[in-house]
Amino acid sequence: MAMREQRVADTFVELADTLVAGFDAVEFLHTLTERCVELLDADTAGLLLADERGSLRLVAASTGQTQLLELFQLQEEEGPCLDCYHSGQVVTLPDVSQVAGRWPRFSAMATELGFAGVHAIPMQLRTQIIGTLNLFRMHPNGLDETDAKLGKALVDVATIGLLSERAVRHQEMVTEQLQTALNSRVTIEQAKGILAERHSVDPDQAFTAMRRHARSHNRRLGEVAGEIIAGTVNVTDAVADVRAGNSARP
């Protein structure tokens, strides 16, 4: 018992450690399925994760049979794992043969592949559901209460860790984008001054000419500004249009 408790503690630490350099989400989710099979009274496990459109995709499966059954559910749009995702509730099937009326195609396929029981756990934090962790058994009867609670705790920790990593990555991306925008703004101001002096136009006209050139050549404004500073781009035509009072949009 002491050895199992130590393994459980180690697994919680392992699943909580997502904010590391080189974090690999796919490897992390495979680890989650492996640890659930190792620690719980389940024979195999599969994991479905929602994409940016909210459609479930198979990410991890501990056996080929599990992969087939998970893909079958997605293809047929029928099964306890899908219901778990859409409802946000744990779905337990002690005996799949007893639910043929509810999920006839799933029940038939599960039986054919040798599965008798399913325990699906939503990967959920408050109202956000990002997928499901699905445990499969070769024999009837579901997980006992202790294993069911432990499975839910493992999934909850993994979900929090994964969402935290996403949030940090998103914040880093936003920060990088903001810094890029600030840097571009400085470059643009410098380029405006160069164009205004070089072509004897006011700063607003210089900016309009830059935008016109960037749009007409499908370029980023910051890139064009940098090239104006470096003297590697010719925007004379755009400046001439602006000076002539061309009313076309920049």
Automatic annotation (TrEMBL):
Keywords: Kinase, Transcription, Transcription regulation, Transferase
Database matches in Pfam families: ANTAR, GAF_2
SMART domains found in the cross-reference section: ANTAR (SM01012), GAF (SM00065)
SUPFAM superfamilies for the chain: CheY-like, GAF domain-like
All copies of domain ANTAR, residue ranges: 168-229
Name by which UniProt lists this protein: GAF and ANTAR domain-containing protein
